[in-house]
Write a structure and sequence with these properties.
By secondary structure, the chain is mostly helical. The chain is globular and about 55 Å long. The two termini are 21 Å apart.
Length: 418
């Protein structure tokens, strides 16, 4: 049964990755080239999901604890989430004004059922996979689904490039085909063997964090200088990082005029290098500390906006995405592990809950401010401001790394395996 569940989970994850790679990879091009979205709508594409996700996660955490079957709960949530892909595809055929704005709202709305699905899947799979098997299993699952995602991105980009990028129907057909992959995703999820236990009285982990939003805990968090220094630095870096997210889409699609295949190649180059360098970042963090390596990652990430705008040449942009995948891997790995390093183990859930609330606010504000910079000062200024903020964050990480005392053992290299 264990072997069967692991195999089914890998198939489930592979089909999920295909659907998500197609939609996430080309929804920005669909909006800009086919639906003629405005810059403000592109900003909302990046900012709204963060705001919706905050409230969705809170409600999902409370609801999941009452579900008798996590498998069914996850399957229903996933089905609802994937059905929104179909709505995104057929919107131009409906009698609605401003279809681009509707697509943006639907992309944000996906976060509601997706949050239910993600949290229930995590609880579901943790029940099925014993602790001693989790590290090798997730390592293998992540490796396979990443490879599947790379091929899905490339193949869909190659097919979309055969048509005029201003046509709507090729994107619509691509998004509609994700319905077939989503059916297979849910089918393999339902095929898992689940031991249905009586509902537990235990409160979900996230709900414990929610219930601790009280004056006494907030006062304790605000008095923790180490957490404020590191958490504040991470939030500042996230602001500088996410500020440029909509600008990259607009630059690559509207100014560099990258076709679908090249957009897929940019994604593949960046992800491939991340896969190859995760373990190196983990080893270096264990050797020199999360703070110092986070400083190096932030400086590397700071170069990305400035280097991107130097040339619209496709091969140049491909090279930039390839090289910047290295610090991107470090950022992806170290952001959370550095935070964990300064969270007291007994109150880790509370600290992370407060941080995630602040991060959701940053995730909503930063892209909107980035679009404001674009509208008032232009693309070059917006990108260089993002570079400057990321550089400052790198300096903060370097200076404060010597001031931080690690509270709990946390192996970064071992965490990469899962």
């Amino acid at each position: 049964m264990k072997s069967s569940n692991e195999s089914l989970s890998i198939w489930n994850g592979s089909f999920a990755t295909v659907s998500l790679s197609i939609v996430n990879g080309y929804v920005a091009m669909y909006l800009l080239d086919a639906l003629h979205a405005t810059d403000s709508e592109m900003g909302l594409l990046n900012s709204l999901p963060s705001l919706v996700n905050l409230f969705a996660m809170l409600f999902a955490a409370i609801t999941i604890g009452r579900a008798r079957s996590k498998r069914i709960f996850c399957s229903v949530s996933t089905s609802i989430s994937r059905s929104i892909f179909i709505l995104i595809a057929i919107l131009p055929w409906l009698a609605v004004s401003h279809p681009a704005l509707w697509v943006v709202w639907f992309v944000a709305l996906i976060r509601v059922p997706q949050s239910f699905g993600d949290l229930s899947w995590q609880a579901f799979i943790s029940d099925l996979i014993p602790p001693e098997r989790r590290s090798p299993f997730f390592s293998e699952r992540n490796r396979i689904t990443t490879i599947v995602g790379l091929f899905a991105t490339l193949l869909s980009g190659l097919l979309l490039q055969q048509f005029d990028k201003h046509l709507k129907w090729p994107y619509q057909i691509a998004f509609l085909t994700t319905a077939a992959f989503s059916v297979a995703e849910v089918w393999f999820l339902m095929m898992h063997h689940e031991r249905i236990a009586p509902p537990k009285r235990a409160v979900p982990l996230l709900v414990k964090g929610i219930r601790r939003f009280r004056t006494d805990t907030l006062r304790r968090v605000l008095a923790d200088k180490q957490f404020l220094i590191v958490g504040g630095g991470l939030l500042f870096f996230n602001f500088g990082w996410q500020l440029a997210w909509p600008l990259f889409n607009i630059y690559q699609i509207s100014e560099a005029h990258a076709p679908a295949l090249w957009l897929g190649l940019f994604t593949v180059a960046n992800q491939l290098v991340q896969i190859l360098t995760y373990r190196w970042w983990g080893r270096m963090a264990d050797r020199f500390g999360n703070g110092r390596m986070m400083a190096f990652a932030a400086v590397g990430m700071a170069l990305t906006p400035a280097l991107t705008i130097l040339s619209p040449n496709m091969w140049y942009l491909f090279l930039i995405n390839f090289v910047t995948g290295i610090p991107n891997a470090g950022t992806t790995l170290l952001l959370f592990t550095y935070l964990l390093e300064v969270c007291p183990e007994a109150e880790r859930t509370t600290y992370i809950a407060y941080y995630n609330v602040a991060l959701s606010v940053i995730g909503f504000m930063a892209p909107e401010i980035g679009i404001w910079f674009l509208g008032h000062w232009g693309m070059t200024a917006g990108m260089l401001i993002s570079t400057g903020l990321r550089l400052v964050a790198g300096g903060v990480f370097w200076v404060t790394s010597a001031m931080i005392k690690r509270r709990t053992p946390w192996s970064t290299s071992s965490s990469v395996q899962i």
